[in-house]
Amino acid sequence: MKIGIPKEIKNNENRVGMTPAGVFELTKRNHIVYIQTSAGFGSGFFDEDYQEAGAIILNSIEEVYASSDMIVKVKEPIQEEYQLIKPNQIVFTYFHFASSEILTKAMIKSDAICIAYETVEEADGSLPLLIPMSEVAGRMSIQQGAKYLEKPIKGRGVLLGGVPGVPPGKVLVLGAGIVGIQAAKMAAGLGAHVTIMDINMKQLRYVNDVMPNHVVTEFSSEYNIRKRIEESDLIIGGVLIKGAKAPKLITKDMLKNMRPGTVIVDVAVDQGGCFETTKATTHEDPTYIIDDVVHYCVANMPGAVPYTSTVALTNVTLPYVIKLANDGWEKACENNVPLSKGLNIVKGKVVYKEITEAFNWETEVT
After folding, report:
1. Which of 30, 114, 150, 339 is at a distance of 20 to 30 A from 129, taking alpha carbons?
2. Which residues carry out catalysis (predicted)?
């Protein structure tokens, strides 16, 4: 199969769809890999590295799309790429369709095979291709939140770990999944007092067992959230509903109950965000302020640490890319149930019901 790896063109996205090591695994199986020149520069991989692994370097994104049977990316195609996608072409990437009706309609129109990393699902309900980026984003949420708590950038002026004689900062984490646990781990490591909320008691028991004593669990309800936000310095939104829009756990009216300079980080922004006041931002302009509350809502947080993120992503996507390349999408999905759940749009038809539900479409999904 001919596999194309274009350069990511979303704002400040420095990741690339595959490492040279991943390319080598494909070329040794006699697949042809095209990569756009300088696609890996932001992640610390150079054209020579890819050539040594057997890739063919192409000069433009147009050439990569035109030459390839399958496109392997990191982020969803943006408007400039819509017209480049061919009918029957496999596009394997993070799509997050539920957060963008425009993207969804464009991919329906393209007649491509859209396989979303974020909905590939194992039998136990885990999302193997989302986990590494959730791990990165969860850890980064504390790193970024701690920075934006500084007074020069309009935060409360709180050091999360405190110092002798001064209590540590208080962190509220909404969601005890991968993002939430990683965020809690990082915040606890800094010495902050952490409260993690979820409606899943099994997850809360797990967190209670593995985290230190200054990480406490609490059942998530509107009443409890309203109470906790009044005293929190940093709030992390890490709630995920697979393939669907995130629930709005913090509404605009709640902001007035937070102290000025409180920082909220919405890691669920790719799925529409779990704060009512969320709007996607970029690494170039990452924050905005509403009612004296600092919002950090960067839609591609792991793009700020592209080397770590690209290696972590290739580690988990490569086995699926090899299956698709060896067998074609139909046979690969027939033989691999987790991969089949990644199918979102096939030749102009939505095949993942959460997408139609997100937009209240009445289209029947098969």
Report:
1. 30
2. 96, 270
Question: Which amino acid is it at 284?
Answer: E
pTM of the model as a whole = 0.87
Q: Which residues are annotated as a binding site?
A: 15, 75, 134, 198, 220, 239-240, 267-270, 298-301
Expressed as residue numbers, the domain containing 333 is 2-119+306-358
My answer on whether 156 and 108 are in the same domain is no
Domain count, the chain: 2
pLDDT digits 0-9 by tens, 193-252: 999 999 999 999 999 999 999 999 999 999 999 999 999 999 999 997 766 678 899 999
Sign of CA dihedral 352, 240, 335, 331: positive
> What is the three-class DSSP state of 12?
coil
Binding residues for NAD(+): 134, 198, 220, 239-240, 267-270, 298-301
Whether 125 is in a domain gets the answer no
pLDDT at residue 364 is higher than 60: no
Dump pLDDT digits (tens) for 308-332: 999 999 999 999 999 999 999 999 9
CATH of the domain at 197: 3.40.50.720
What are the catalytic residues?
Answer: 96, 270
Q: Is position 365 within any domain?
A: no
Annotated binding site for substrate: 15, 75
Judgement on whether residues 284 and 325 belong to the same structural domain of the protein: no
